[in-house]
Amino acid sequence: MRYGLAVLGLALLSGACASSNSPKAQANAEMGFGVDAAQRSYWQEALFRFERARALEPQNGKLLNNLAVALEALGRYDEALATYKQALQATPKNSVIRRNYARFAEFYTSYAKGVKPKEGPDAPH
User: Model confidence over 27-75: pLDDT tens digits?
Assistant: First the structure.
């Protein structure tokens, strides 16, 4: 399965508040550490960082999307589905989140039915 690493990297928030101690700035820092970890395939660390950021900004759609990607990468599919849905509720018009959810929902439907996703050179990209 391919994960949304490129999407994940784009989800860093810009324009943090002037105070580095503000919750938004702290959440941005945690999200940055999480993206870094995910790009290195350190999914458990990424999950830890995204969860810390979510404690500071629970309705941040981009953050919830990254959290869902990490949960998916760790095989925690039920939690990933619920988190993708939360991300969509928080940011319903975000096309990246909508695309990630649609891709995951297609996989999840096959997974729930016990169908192994197609892998290898003929797999869709």
Answer: 999 999 999 999 999 999 999 999 999 999 999 999 999 999 999 999 9
- Alpha carbon distance 123, 33 (integer Å): 31
Domains of the chain and any CATH numbers: 5-11+21-112 (1.25.40.10)
User: What is the rounded distance in angstroms from the CA atom of residue 45 to the CA atom of residue 52?
Assistant: 11
∠ CA 69-93-29, rounded to 5°? 45
Record the pTM.
Answer: 0.76
- Produce one character per residue of 34-47: b if its CB has 16 or more CB atoms within 10 Å, e if not: bbebbeeeebebbb
